[in-house]
């Protein structure tokens, strides 16, 4: 509510109360003080409005525009810096991905080489184990012949 409206409402209420009964002197003084304060506030507001002439307002508008332009420039520079940082991060992760892919290929190549060598050694071991079976059967046969020969000799001697 504006001060003038409130002042008018107060005066109207005071008029209606004057008809019904007289205000006490303290209430009258209070109403007068209130009217005085409202009047002083109105004068101060008018002085403030005259203080800001058209030229002063235009100067303030120019200052505000200059501040806004400076802020926009700073935001633009910060945005460019952030874009550069993001490009560096993107480049880093791209190169990291390439390095990890190369590392993966090298590991796979190494694993294949080891598996081939393992298969070759296993085949060689299986072949030697098979040869060992032949040697074992020959040894068993020779032992059998040796035992038989010893019996024959011992029976011939006796």
Protein described:
This is FCH domain-containing protein. It holds the Pfam family FCH. It comes from Ancylostoma ceylanicum. Keywords: Coiled coil. This protein has a domain at 1-51. The chain is mostly helical. Helix 1 runs antiparallel to helix 2 (25-51). It has helices spanning 3-20, 25-51, 54-157. 0% of the residues are buried.
Write a compact overview of the structure shown.
The protein has helices at residues 3-20, 25-51, 54-157. By secondary structure, the protein is mainly alpha-helical. The chain has a domain at 1-51.
List keywords for this structure.
158 residues, mainly alpha, 3 helices, 0% strand, rod-shaped, FCH domain-containing protein, SLIT-ROBO_RhoGAP
List the helices and strands and how they pair.
Blueprint: H1 3-20, H2 25-51, H3 54-157
Outline the biggest β-sheet. Answer: none
Q: What's the helix count?
A: 3
Please provide the count of β strands.
Answer: 0
Helix content: over 70%
Ranges with pLDDT <50 over ≥5 residues?
Answer: none
Tell me the overall shape: rod-shaped
Radius of gyration: 56 Å
What is the average per-residue confidence, as pLDDT, rounded to a whole number? 78
Q: H/E series, N to C?
A: HHH
Distance between the termini: 148 Å
Strand content: under 5%
Derived from helix and strand composition plus strand pairing, the structural class reads: mainly alpha
